[in-house]
TrEMBL record:
<feature type="transmembrane region" description="Helical">
    <location>
        <begin position="336"/>
        <end position="356"/>
    </location>
</feature>
<dbReference type="GO" id="GO:0008324">
    <property type="term" value="F:monoatomic cation transmembrane transporter activity"/>
</dbReference>
<dbReference type="GO" id="GO:0015297">
    <property type="term" value="F:antiporter activity"/>
</dbReference>
<dbReference type="GO" id="GO:0005886">
    <property type="term" value="C:plasma membrane"/>
</dbReference>
<feature type="transmembrane region" description="Helical">
    <location>
        <begin position="368"/>
        <end position="388"/>
    </location>
</feature>
<keyword id="KW-0630">Potassium</keyword>
<feature type="transmembrane region" description="Helical">
    <location>
        <begin position="117"/>
        <end position="142"/>
    </location>
</feature>
<keyword id="KW-0812">Transmembrane</keyword>
<feature type="transmembrane region" description="Helical">
    <location>
        <begin position="275"/>
        <end position="294"/>
    </location>
</feature>
<dbReference type="GO" id="GO:1902600">
    <property type="term" value="P:proton transmembrane transport"/>
</dbReference>
<dbReference type="InterPro" id="IPR005170">
    <property type="entry name" value="Transptr-assoc_dom"/>
</dbReference>
<keyword id="KW-1003">Cell membrane</keyword>
<keyword id="KW-0406">Ion transport</keyword>
<feature type="transmembrane region" description="Helical">
    <location>
        <begin position="6"/>
        <end position="26"/>
    </location>
</feature>
<dbReference type="InterPro" id="IPR006037">
    <property type="entry name" value="RCK_C"/>
</dbReference>
<feature type="transmembrane region" description="Helical">
    <location>
        <begin position="163"/>
        <end position="181"/>
    </location>
</feature>
<keyword id="KW-0633">Potassium transport</keyword>
């Protein structure tokens, strides 16, 4: 028994260690790292190195704990501003989008496999939700920078749609194995929905504030705070589940609360949570990979590939388009959101439920879901960056990397100590003076600590400790960051800057293009805001005659503070023939109505002109 314990520890730790080292190669070759974790589990499993693991209940237990940690960390890292900007479209995708996707895939499953409606819809719900771990990793670590609204919508959707898919899957498994009639089953499903989602949300809100309250009031060793938080999160998850509500939704909401309020040891907690989230992802993907038996995939490979094609190219795009039509996303933005519908460990985890619940075709559902996830990670995960560039949605970073370390001060003050390393290409490295309010408290140079007065001008490689107000730290980041590549910066922010209150008519006179009298009286900022329909982010551009006007900087009230002027027009973004938004649909219908009215008027006029005149009658 002791030897078997050591063998289990050895194998488990080796798998985790190898999974960590594979990140080096996956980054180099551009492979989705979570796909590598999953393939590593398959390689170590029954058809690979021969590790036999077939306990679905244990796998579901491990996966549920791991998913709870991942969802809490996902909520913790989501800024309240991002959530507010994307809440409505993201939550629409997380609810209606999941239902539409499940319905279309379920219809395809019934046609392909010939199953009954409950089994077909069960497979649809299993693969209906996007995976938080996959989406967060590829968007945050994948090295692409997107418009904030698009990124936030994808992140909030991936964090909040898992509870919907889990609820539907559990409910359909219950219906498939119950003897209740259809009407009674439907009423039970409706009651369960309001209990799971409603009570789960309320419990998450209360639990988040309770966690913050406890952490801020209890005096502990600093290393114990992350342990306390993780314990409280799992207590919240388990207690909510015991009460019949969605523990997954509760921990995600609690993460949103905890990550956006002042909390003791929050920096240390953030670092520990990131590590715990990585460990949870590795454990979940390895476990699910071990549970699968690739030798059984052959019998369902072609139908599963067909289901994957329906999901990726039909169900997800239709669901996304229907959900985003009211919110003014452009065609390219809608297409990208549709493409980033990554399926991952959650779908495989849900596929365990029919298998262990005794549902007919349960093992087949698991194999189909596994193949669908592999297809999604390979096809979509490997192409997110190229598709974003092809659609013209990649926004180069405004500032290059900055090596910064936050050191939390005790108490609840609004100041913090930040540490920067001076980079040669940064503004400070090129001789820019530091403002008086940001004078360093300490400088480390060549292994020696120096006072600012004695150090002289800062040089590349200096490590600088600064005490600054929290709201000023962003300004310091700009001083100590390496500027973005000059070619990228010029392409993104224009050749030079102009004031936002310049009259558009003066610009037209300078560059020789015509405007209407109304447009000529507008300011540049007003013209841009009207053209962008109020949805403004840094890097947005508007054509004005032969030049492009670009939003260089927004102020604290999201008003345009600086405008860039690009003399050479950038190639226009590709305009897809699909995914029209609400404004385009309304404009098309209006234009069609005008054309019909004009056609009827022309036909009436033609009929009148060709009508024979009555001969004049004698009096």
């Amino acid at each position: 028994m002791i030897e078997s314990m050591y063998v289990a520890i050895l194998i488990g730790s080796l798998l985790v260690g190898v999974a960590v080292f594979t990140s080096i190669f996956s980054t180099r070759f551009g492979a989705p790292l979570l796909l590598v974790f999953l393939l590593l589990g398959l390689l170590a499993g029954e058809d690979g190195l021969g590790i036999h693991f077939s306990d679905g209940r244990v796998a579901y237990f491990i996966g549920s704990i791991a998913l709870a940690i991942i969802l809490f960390e996902s909520g913790f890292e989501t800024k309240s501003s991002a959530f507010r900007a994307a809440a409505l479209p993201a939550l629409t995708l997380a609810t209606i989008g999941v239902l539409v996707t499940a319905g279309i895939v379920g219809l395809a499953a019934r046609f392909v496999f010939g199953w009954d409606w409950i089994s077909a819809m069960l497979l649809g719900t299993i693969v209906a939700s996007t995976d938080a771990a996959a989406v967060f990793f590829l968007l945050r670590v994948g090295g692409i920078s997107l418009r904030e609204r698009v990124r936030s919508s994808l992140e909030v959707e991936s964090g909040s749609n898992d509870p919907m898919a889990i609820f539907l899957t559990v409910a359909l498994v219950g219906i498939a194995t119950a003897a209740a009639g259809e009407g009674e089953a439907f009423l039970s499903l409706l009651r369960s929905f309001f209990l799971q989602i409603g009570v789960g949300s309320i419990t998450g809100l209360i639990g988040g504030f309770v966690i913050v309250r406890i952490v801020n009031r209890v005096e502990l060793e600093s290393a114990l705070y992350p342990i306390l938080v993780m314990a409280l999160v799992l207590v919240l998850f388990a207690a909510t589940g015991i009460g019949g509500a969605s523990g997954f939704l509760a921990v995600y909401v609690a993460g949103l609360i905890c990550g956006n309020v002042r909390m003791r040891q929050i920096l240390a907690l953030r670092r520990v949570l990131q590590g715990m989230s990585w460990l949870a992802q590795i454990a979940m993907f390895l476990t699910l990979g071990l549970l699968a038996t690739p030798s059984e995939f052959g019998s369902v490979l072609l139908p599963a590939l067909g289901i994957a094609a329906v999901l990726i190219f039909i169900a997800r795009p239709v669901a996304v388009w229907l959900c985003l039509v009211p919110f003014g996303f452009s065609r390219n933005e809608t297409a990208f959101v549709a493409w980033v519908g990554l399926r991952g460990a959650v779908s495989i985890l849900l596929a365990i439920l029919p298998m262990v619940g005794g549902v007919s075709h349960g093992q087949m559902m698991f194999n189909v879901a596994f193949i669908v996830v592999l297809c999604s990670l390979v096809l979509q995960g490997w192409t997110i960056a190229p598709v974003a560039r092809w659609l013209g949605l990649v926004v180069p970073a405004r500032y290059g990397p900055v090596e910064r370390v936050d050191i939390e001060l005790p108490g609840r003050g609004d100041h913090e100590i930040v540490t920067y390393r001076v980079m040669p290409e940064s503004a400070v490295g090129r001789g820019r003076r530091i403002p008086r309010w940001a004078r360093p408290a300490l400088i480390l140079r060549d292994g020696r600590s120096l006072r600012f007065e004695a150090a002289g001008p800062l040089v590349a490689g200096d490590q600088v400790y600064i005490i600054a107000a929290t709201e000023h730290v962003r300004l310091l980041d700009q001083l100590f960051a390496r500027p973005a590549d000059s070619a990228d910066a010029s392409a993104l922010f224009g050749d030079f800057a102009i004031e936002p209150d310049v009259k558009l008519g003066d610009l037209a006179e300078a560059y020789g293009f015509e405007l209407t009298a109304e447009e000529a009286s507008e300011t540049v900022a007003g013209f841009m805001r009207r053209s962008l329909a109020g949805d403004i982010e840094e890097g947005d551009r508007v054509a004005a005659g032969p030049v492009d006007l670009i939003v260089r900087r927004l102020d604290d009230h999201d008003e345009i503070a600086e405008v860039g002027l690009a003399l050479e027009r950038r190639a226009p973004r590709r305009k897809l023939p699909l995914f029209q938004n609400r404004r385009e649909i309304v404009a098309y219908l209006k234009e069609r109505r005008i054309r019909k009215t004009a056609a009827r008027a022309a036909a009436l006029a033609a009929a009148v002109t060709t009508m024979p005149l009555d001969e004049e009658q004698p009096h």
